[in-house]
């Protein structure tokens, strides 16, 4: 599909990724996404008054609107459009399982996730939100603290360009790191294939939710992982992270596998919902606009 | 039962092991593939292990059966299909109605059982089938099922062995030559071992054999009854032999009277000497008490009684012949006279005797008028220079032999008396000669020949030509030549029922024991099928006898078991059974075997379709 004739956020991810680097592609995606919203996501650029909200312990006293306090004996805080209240951290799983695709014509899960992370970051930065990035596998491989200032985008893009796809996934450390990076309530976006034990994710999610964070989990899966498509005959299926080897005949187990995957995804959705997180499964052949909209919706629910 | 036309294709069934091996080795086959979601795959197998296992087992079985069915179909199977009837079949039924089949077992003749089985085969025949009945005597009855069935019902036991082997061969040839699709041979026999002496090759017919499983009855039989010598002058002996497990009493009859009674031991011989007053040809029997096989309890014989022949020895015959005849005359075996002349072939008295046939009436009991020249025992002349004269004399006398070149060298006599011959003359048959009988040979060449009214010896009876005159066998041999071979009384021929024998010279009729006469002509005559003594008639006078008796071997009722009998028959397929139902079912089995390859292919296709359905079905559904 020609790029000029359509919104980039709805293009085929692999086709779009072949056009340029992560930063350019992210801009394409975000621009296309915002044009689709038909309104600006931002509340303004200037330091203009926007609204009052009730004072909460911890608010700086200088932000109190003393005139209203004098007239009505209520403590309210003035909010300005240019104020940056949201601190978002994107947790990107760069484990070895992410560097896999079931079809050479598709992006690997990691490539897809990196472009998605860049687009989300750019979208948030354009809202004057502070955005950080934590890349992890068995440990935190790199982190960019959340910032809203200029240059943050480049740092994030630079971090995304670092090599990844190393070892096994261990999300707990990444969540802990994210908690340290976002001491105040914020948005945590986990992008992973979630091919881990559920408690490795659910425990930290509950902890983050307890801290008041909004958690969005985007599970990135290759279509072949969902239905064993593109495979045939007898094979020994080896998990690159755990070395788990499963001999199977694709024809024999395809239907059972499909059923099991559906069950597993439903379990993730249910458990994460129970933990207070927002869950979305993202297929690497889906346009970037789909998960981006999900992340944006989560952001919009934030104050 | 299933048969295969291309059984080598059954080896392809080994391919059925492939899906089985793949099933067993499945967990160890296939390339390693990196797959991050392997944990879900493991979980799927774990959660659906039962259904997957059942489904895999079902698929494996379907594939194995499909391969097996394809291999079976390739082997071109044929099988009997229920309700399919049978293809048009040419079936020849051999009914062994030899004498042994008349034995009574469990109160019923064996032949009745055999006939029942043969009729059962006929009843199963359809309108498209071709049937024959061949009995042990070689008689063939073909036609419709009704005609063959009637022939079976009419069949009676033979008085002798017949020839089951020849009947089987003839029946196989009939069936094989028929245009029908299937060719079968149904044999019903008592499996008498002596009737199946050798393995019989029957080609491409299918053979089913029924033989009763009951053991043969105990039997005693007269296996020898002979007058010794056949011509009594006028005394002799009856030599008899019985086959029996115990001692058995016998009776010898001569004419209408009992000649003697006695007891013969188990398997023993008995010799009864007698000098009966009868003259001429007389018939007699040796009889035992009746048992389960009646046909061999009586054995017939014939003998001739009369005065000893009168012999004249010419001086040309030599002193050894003269002295021997004198000894026989002294013993009363011969008398002096002109009935028989012993002479060298070139001797003048002999020539005159042949040139002027005897005109005076011959004394009884010789046939009257006696049409032959006086009998003569002719010897090769002692001087070699007389060979030419001897040949001229032989020519003048009408004797169809000539002396040829002399043969020197010592050689034993074969077929005659125990002696060596040093000098002999090659006997050459004259052109257009009447058939003659060779009584003895030397080095494969005739040495003693016999013709009408003469016996010709190729050597002179002197020690420089043969040591026969010096041997003890000389006197009996000379007596046999005079009293038997040269006797104008004729001979007794012992034959089996229906056997063919050369017609004796001058014989023109055959008289049965009941007195009826049948004329005979040609070079041969067939012995009557009923045992007894039949007289050879020459111009109305008895000139010998045909004694018809069952073969002694027919009294040996030992049977072959099923496997041994099966080993005696080589055919496309051979089934030997003692079970009547099995035999009945085996008949027309060749015609009822239809190809079932198409059915197997259809079944294999169904298996493959089922396999495809099962492969594409969800595990839970497949299970």
What's a quick, concise take on this entry?
With 303 residues, chain A is an alpha/beta fold.
Q: What are the main properties of this structure?
A:
heterodimer; A: 303 residues; alpha/beta; Rossmann fold; 2 domains; 6-stranded mixed sheet; two-stranded antiparallel ribbon; 10 helices; 40% helix; elongated; B: Rossmann fold; Immunoglobulin-like; 9-stranded mixed sheet; 38 strands; disordered C terminus
Could you explain how this protein is built, in words?
The complex is a heterodimer of chains A (303) and B (623). Chain A has 303 residues and is of the alpha/beta class. Chain A has 2 domains: 254 residues, Rossmann fold, CATH 3.40.50.410; 32 residues, no CATH class. A 6-stranded mixed sheet of chain A has the order 5-4-3-6-7-10, sandwiched between helices. Chain A has a two-stranded antiparallel sheet with strand order 1-2. In chain A, strands 8-9 form a two-stranded antiparallel ribbon. Chain B is an alpha/beta fold and 623 residues long. Chain B has 4 domains: 107 residues, no CATH class; 166 residues, Rossmann fold, CATH 3.40.50; 86 residues, Sandwich (Immunoglobulin-like); 176 residues, Rossmann fold (3-Layer(aba) Sandwich), CATH 3.40.50. Chain B is built from 15 helices and 38 strands. In chain B, the strands form 9 sheets. Chain B has a 9-stranded mixed sheet with strand order 21-20-22-23-28-27-26-24-25. Chain B has a 6-stranded mixed sheet with strand order 8-7-4-9-11-37, sandwiched between helices. Chain B has a 5-stranded mixed sheet with strand order 13-19-18-15-16, with no helix packed on it. The longest helix of chain B is centred in the first third of the chain and has 26 residues. Chain B is elongated. The interface between A and B is medium-sized, with 36 and 31 residues.
């Amino acid at each position: 599909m020609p790029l000029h004739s359509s919104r980039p956020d709805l293009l085929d991810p692999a086709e779009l990724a072949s056009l340029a680097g992560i930063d350019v592609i992210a801009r394409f995606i975000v621009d296309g996404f915002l044009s689709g919203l038909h309104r600006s996501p931002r509340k303004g650029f200037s330091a203009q008054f926007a609204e009052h909200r009730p004072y909460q312990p911890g608010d700086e006293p200088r932000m109190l609107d003393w005139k209203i306090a004098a007239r009505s004996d209520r403590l309210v805080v003035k909010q300005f459009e240019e104020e940056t209240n949201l601190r978002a951290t994107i947790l990107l799983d760069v484990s070895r399982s992410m560097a896999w695709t079931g079809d050479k014509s598709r992006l690997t899960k990691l490539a897809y996730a990196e472009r998605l992370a860049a687009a989300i970051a750019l979208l948030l930065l354009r809202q004057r939100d502070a955005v950080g990035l934590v890349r992890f596998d068995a440990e935190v491989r790199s982190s960019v603290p959340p910032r809203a200032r200029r240059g943050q985008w480049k740092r994030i893009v630079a971090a995304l360009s670092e090599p990844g796809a190393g070892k096994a996934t261990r999300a707990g450390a990444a969540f802990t790191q994210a908690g340290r990076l976002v001491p105040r309530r914020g948005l945590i976006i986990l992008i992973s294939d979630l091919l881990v034990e559920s408690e490795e994710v659910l425990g930290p999610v509950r902890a983050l939710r307890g801290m008041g964070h909004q958690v969005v989990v985007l599970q990135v899966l290759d279509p072949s992982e969902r239905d064993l498509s593109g495979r045939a005959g007898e094979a020994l299926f080896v998990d690159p992270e755990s070395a788990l080897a499963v001999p199977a005949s694709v024809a024999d187990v395809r239907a059972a596998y499909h059923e099991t995957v559906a069950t597993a995804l439903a379990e993730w959705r249910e458990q994460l919902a129970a933990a207070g997180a927002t869950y979305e499964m993202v297929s690497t052949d889906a346009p970037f606009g789909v998960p981006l909209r999900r992340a944006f919706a989560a952001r919009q629910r934030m104050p | 039962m299933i048969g295969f036309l291309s059984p080598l294709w059954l080896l392809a069934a080994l391919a059925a092991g492939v899906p089985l091996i793949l099933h067993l080795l499945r967990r160890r086959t296939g390339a390693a593939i990196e797959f991050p979601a392997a944990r879900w795959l493991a979980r799927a197998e774990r959660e659906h292990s039962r259904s997957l296992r059942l489904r895999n087992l079902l698929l494996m079985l379907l594939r194995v059966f499909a391969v097996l069915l394809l291999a079976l179909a390739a082997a071109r199977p044929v099988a009997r299909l229920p309700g399919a009837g049978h293809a048009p079949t040419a079936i020849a039924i051999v009914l062994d109605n030899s004498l042994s089949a008349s034995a009574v077992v469990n109160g019923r003749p064996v032949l009745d059982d055999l006939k029942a089985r043969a009729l059962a085969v006929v009843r199963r025949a359809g309108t498209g089938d071709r049937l024959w009945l061949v009995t042990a005597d070689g008689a063939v009855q073909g036609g419709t099922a009704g005609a063959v069935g009637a022939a079976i019902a009419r069949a009676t036991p033979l008085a002798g062995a017949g020839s089951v082997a020849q009947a089987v061969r003839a029946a196989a040839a009939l069936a094989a030559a028929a245009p029908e699709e299937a060719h079968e041979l149904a044999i019903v026999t008592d499996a008498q071992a002596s009737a199946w002496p050798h393995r019989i090759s029957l080609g491409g017919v299918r053979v089913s054999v029924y033989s009763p499983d009951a053991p043969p009855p105990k039997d005693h039989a007269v296996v020898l009854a002979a007058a010794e010598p056949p011509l009594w002058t006028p005394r002799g002996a009856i030599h008899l032999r019985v086959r029996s497990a115990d001692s058995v009493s016998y009776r010898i009859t001569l004419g209408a009277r009992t000649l003697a009674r006695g007891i013969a031991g188990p398997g023993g011989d008995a010799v009864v000497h007698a000098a009966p007053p009868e003259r001429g040809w007389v018939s007699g029997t040796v009889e035992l008490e009746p048992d389960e096989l009646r046909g061999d309890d009586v054995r017939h014989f014939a003998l001739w009684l009369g005065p000893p022949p009168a012999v004249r020895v010419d001086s040309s015959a030599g002193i050894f012949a003269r002295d021997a005849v004198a000894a026989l005359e002294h013993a009363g075996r011969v008398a002096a006279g002109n009935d028989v002349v012993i002479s060298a072939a070139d001797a003048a008295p002999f020539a005159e005797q042949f040139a002027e046939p005897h005109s005076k009436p011959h004394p009884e009991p010789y046939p009257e008028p006696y049409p032959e020249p006086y009998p003569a025992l002719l010897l090769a002349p002692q001087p070699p220079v007389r060979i030419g004269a001897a040949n001229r004399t032989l020519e003048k006398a009408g004797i169809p032999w000539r002396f040829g070149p002399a043969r020197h060298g010592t050689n034993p006599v074969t077929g005659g008396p125990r002696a060596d011959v040093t000098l002999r003359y090659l006997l050459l048959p004259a052109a257009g000669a009447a058939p003659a009988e060779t009584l003895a040979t030397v080095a494969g060449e005739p040495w003693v020949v016999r013709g009408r009214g003469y016996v010709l010896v190729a050597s002179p009876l002197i020690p420089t030509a043969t040591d026969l005159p010096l041997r003890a066998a000389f006197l009996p041999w000379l007596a046999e030549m005079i009293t038997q071979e040269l006797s104008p009384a004729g001979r007794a021929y012992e034959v089996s029922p229906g056997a063919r024998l050369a017609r004796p010279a001058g014989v023109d009729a055959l008289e049965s024991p009941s007195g009826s006469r049948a004329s005979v002509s040609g070079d041969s005559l067939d012995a009557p099928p009923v045992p007894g003594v039949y007289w050879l008639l020459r111009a109305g006078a008895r000139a010998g006898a045909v004694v018809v008796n069952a073969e002694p071997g027919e009294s040996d009722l030992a049977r072959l078991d099923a496997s041994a009998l099966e080993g005696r028959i080589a055919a496309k397929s051979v089934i030997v059974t003692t079970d009547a139902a099995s035999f009945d079912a085996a008949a027309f089995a060749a015609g009822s075997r239809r190809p079932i390859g198409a059915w197997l292919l259809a079944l294999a296709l169904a298996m493959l379709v089922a396999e495809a359905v099962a492969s594409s079905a969800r595990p839970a559904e497949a299970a």
